[in-house]
Amino acid sequence: xVKICLACSAGGHxxxxxxxxxxxxxxxxxxxxxxxxxTKKLAKKRExxxxxxxxxxxxxxxxxxxxxxxxxxxEKPDLIVADGAGISxxxxxxxxxxxxxxxxxxxxxxxxxxxxxxxxLYPFADLFLVxxxxxxxxxxxxxxxxxxxx
Length: 150
Known about the structure:
Blueprint lengths: L2 E5 L4 H8 L1 H4 L3 E6 L3 H6 L5 E3 L7 H18 L3 E4 L5 H10 L3 E5 L10 H6 L5 E4 L12 E3 L5
Parallel strand pairs: 1-2, 1-4, 2-3, 4-5, 5-6, 6-7
């Protein structure tokens, strides 16, 4: 069976991925995010891994890459679905090192300008989805308009 890693920040990005839970629950899956009240509650219901939020701090970035590598080696996902914020970068890149497929979903809040995470992960993504048509102009040919998740 396919195993999916869902990587996102703990706020609106997590909400977006949970909107697609009817898809994820068909597969073995787990979430990689950072600690907040909502992720603590979610961890009581499903598999959630908490890693350091990189927040553009070199030490935290290194720590989150090491944590992501450990999670990856334990879980061995076949696919990573990343939905924004810097927290999803380490596990996505670790996954690509191990030749796993990466789907990136640009944030619903990004209407005309790409996110920093989107710009970083665009070259690595096997499937790159945007929720607003104007963003297609900002990304290359690989970007696909998917419509809004919400």
